[in-house]
Amino acid sequence: MLTPLLVPLLTDQALITIVVVIAVILVVGTTGLVVARRRRAELPGATKPPIEAAEPQVGDDAEEPRDTPTRTLEDAELPEAPAATLETPESAQGRLVRLRARLARSQGSLGKGLLALLSRDKLDEETWEDIETTLITADVGVGPTQELVEKLRTRMRVEGVGAAQAREILREELVALVDPSMDRTLNVTRKETQPAVVLVVGVNGTGKTTTVGKLARVLVAEDKHVVLGAADTFRAAAADQLQTWGERVGVRTVRGPEGGDPASIAFDSVKEGIAEEADVVLVDTAGRLHTKTGLMDELGKVKRVIEKSAEVDEVLLVIDATTGQNGLTQARVFAEVIDVTGLVLTKLDGTAKGGIVIAVQRELGVPVKLVGLGEGADDLAPFDPEQFVDALLD
Length: 394
Ligand SMILES: Nc1nc2c(ncn2[C@@H]2O[C@H](COP(=O)(O)OP(=O)(O)OP(=O)(O)O)[C@@H](O)[C@H]2O)c(=O)[nH]1
Prior knowledge:
By secondary structure, the protein is of the alpha/beta class. The protein has two domains: 92-178, Four Helix Bundle (Hemerythrin (Met), subunit A), CATH 1.20.120.140; 196-384, 3-Layer(aba) Sandwich (Rossmann fold). Helix content is 47%, strand content 10%. It contains 13 helices and eight strands. The chain has helices at 12-41, 95-98, 100-118, 125-137, 142-159, 163-178, 208-221, 238-248, 262-275, 293-306, 325-337, 356-364, 385-393, and strands spanning 196-201, 226-231, 252-254, 280-285, 314-320, 342-346, 368-372, 380-382. The protein has an eight-stranded mixed sheet with strand order 3-2-4-1-5-6-7-8, with helices on both faces. The longest helix has 30 residues, at 12-41. The structure holds guanosine-5'-triphosphate.
């Protein structure tokens, strides 16, 4: 410390030097304190965006010494992975019973309308004409309508009139018309060395992809090992849509590039099914206008290519029940290019024209095996003639 006595003894130069030294010490000290505080404020937890590290140059020291302990996986906090919860699909049995109310709601005008007419005290010509109109309006088709009216006329004449008889006779004749003798079993049983292969076809928008997804759930509920083939390479979102359906129940989807060759994806999915020893491979195909010959021919190719490695056990044609007579025309054209083994009638919940079940079976001689009764994941049911007719008359 300089005393007032010593000050006069120092030269001006020495005095300036001492003042400068003291000033430098003060500046360095203050800066050090500020830096230390800032560092503390930047410790983890601060929400500052990360600053991109400048490339290290030759001679630069590494920021952390090499002996700093490396954080192990246990130490690092990882973001929590979303739990992959698989859904448990409803078993196929009893689905139609659950969906009966929905069917009754949409088809009420057909069943209950017929019943009301038949229960009249007097069945005159006008009433029979009304019965015919009700059936035709519900898309039963001209042939089956005339057949049914003929039978009802005879039986009502012989067995008498009245609400109770009318209901019983109508029920029996409708069931006969829907034909319970047709084999509606889905061929989804694995053979010794290969999975069952199901090809799903139809016009765009009828509900093919949705049906494949729903069907996968039906099969998973039966403990079957399923592989999905996304051979709809035409609609960009179809493969994603299918994959999402599969992931919900732990089913793998084989897919290819957008716009790729559907036949090669179908082939790959069957190959995968064989390798995984799957029970069933479900192949979704692109929707196509039945009027476009080239696209229709492509379907034949898809089937032939699959058959190089496995038999195709089911070709399910998906028909949108709301399209009425147009659905019938589609069915006819598809049946010409590929052997359809079963029909799926979708959107029966959205139309009163349930008579299409009868008409389309007649047209193709192929049974309706499944019906779609809503957009819900388990709203696809095996078709049962008796339950169907009961729902109409409820
Ligand atoms: N209400 C109702 N909607 C259904 C049913 N089945 C399918 N849909 C709906 O119909 C629409 C079309 O279904 P998709 O499965 O995409 O049809 P797609 O035939 O695969 O269509 P493309 O790939 O364009 O050929 C979707 O909105 C489905 O939710 C059903 O049974 N009832």
